[in-house]
Amino acid sequence: MDKFIIRGGRPLHGEITIGGAKNAGLKLLVAGLLTSERLVLTNVPHIADIATMRALLTQHGLSAEAVNGDKTTLSVGGDITSTEAPYDIVSKMRASILVLGPLLARCREARVSLPGGCAIGTRPVDLHLKGLETLGAKITLENGYINARAPNGLVGERIVLPFASVGATENLMMAATLAKGRTEIVNAAREPEMVDLANCLNAMGAKITGAGSGHIMIDGVEALHGAQHRIMSDRIECGTYACAAAITGGDLRLIGGQIEHLGAVVRAFEEAGVEVTQEGDAMRVRRTGALRGVDIMTEPYPGFPTDMQAQFMALLSVAEGASMITETIFENRFMHVPELNRMGARINVHGSSAIIRGVHGLSGAPVMATDLRASFSLIIAGLAAHGETILSRVYHLDRGYEAVERKLAACGAAIERVKD
Ligand code: EPZ
């Protein structure tokens, strides 16, 4: 298992190109199941989760091939030969559950392993299943698998989500594109990735309006056709590198970063004393003065994204004064806290809230990655820490971030990957 060795104390200066969004790209690959023609995706990030999703699509009979040898462009297509998503793949990546709606819509049946929980929570999929049942699917759970059937096809209906679930919104939106009649999703997730998915589906011939609002309408069509779609830039990757620039007192231009995609994170940066501006196709981040403590509560978009919580906590660990972070989305997303405390942070967790008392400086230490975003929070701390930080289990990071050590080293960070 690879490790990172980081020597802190060097301000980051320069440019970082932000890649395609993991949490858009995974679903856009799945959208390839909805048509018998080819869907060409560009700006595809080179990350492990994308490789896992390509393997899952292959399992269903589709190919997701690099075009002209360039994995940044994938051509997805082929005939569905299996409607089963096996446990060994689904358990590796929970986003696999998103094949359920498209398989039901196209093939009128699906057998998908129930995804287990993961490090950050139990991650149930009840809203996905209830929504599909509202569209007419018959669903039973046996031997750890979801058996879903819709012999007469799905029928549009009004679905009210009790929680603005990202995955449930995406699963239902995709399923509804081929249902008979109109589907309404009320209290839908409003994340920018919903808009990106709807734009791609509409390019494929779907009839979707309202994506990005809490109320999405989908008028079913007979079939979808092929299309080409560029994946939006990864707003969480952008916010993550912004934290790295801020904690090191640097000045970074994040190419492809879009301020409006970061919602409440921009306000939190400004309150913390970090300057964030849009300069054409780049988001510029610099910190000249002292960092100030900020109170944060994670919420569905446009609130502060839970996927930025761990990274922002690392930043606040060296701010002047105290901060409080309340995690309202997942039940166990503070696993970076004990590792940050080993680096000299002063963070106390009380239920779903963490109190962060800013310290003058952190000290490098051997630390362990536990999940994707927690991994990067330890890198952010290591970039500011005095001395050497050794981050193990970097495979967590490789699931969702591309070429981290290359991007950071190019901006002056002392970071290297060592093969364990
Ligand atoms: C997506 O997960 C993202 N993953 C997550 O990013 C992100 O943190 C999350 O949305 C929230 O923004 C991908 O897009 C691949 P949810 P998802 O459905 O769809 C509960 C990362 O780091 N819930 O909005 O699973 C659930 O338990 C990852 O990139 C139900 O109770 O998120 C959780 O507490 C981590 N029943 C909350 O809702 C359901 O049927 C949010 O879940 C579905 C969800």
UniProtKB/TrEMBL annotation:
Task performed by this protein: Cell wall formation. Adds enolpyruvyl to UDP-N-acetylglucosamine.
Reactions catalysed, as given in the entry: phosphoenolpyruvate + UDP-N-acetyl-alpha-D-glucosamine = UDP-N-acetyl-3-O-(1-carboxyvinyl)-alpha-D-glucosamine + phosphate
Classification via InterPro entries: Enolpyruvate_Tfrase_dom, Enolpyruvate_Tfrase_sf, MurA_subfamily, RNA3'P_cycl/enolpyr_Trfase_a/b, UDP_GlcNAc_COvinyl_MurA
Binding sites annotated in the UniProt record for UDP-N-acetyl-alpha-D-glucosamine: R94, R123, P124, V125, D126, L127, D307, I329
Name the UniProt record assigns to this protein: UDP-N-acetylglucosamine 1-carboxyvinyltransferase
Phylogenetic classification of the source organism: Bacteria, Pseudomonadati, Pseudomonadota, Alphaproteobacteria, Acetobacterales
Gene Ontology CC: cytoplasm
Molecular function (Gene Ontology), one example: UDP-N-acetylglucosamine 1-carboxyvinyltransferase activity
Active site: C118 (proton donor)
Keyword vocabulary terms for this entry: Cell cycle, Cell division, Cell shape, Cell wall biogenesis/degradation, Cytoplasm, Peptidoglycan synthesis, Pyruvate, Transferase
Pfam families reported for this sequence: EPSP_synthase
Gene assigned in the entry: murA
Enzyme class: transferase
Source domain of life: Bacteria
Enzyme Commission no: 2.5.1.7
Subcellular compartments: Cytoplasm
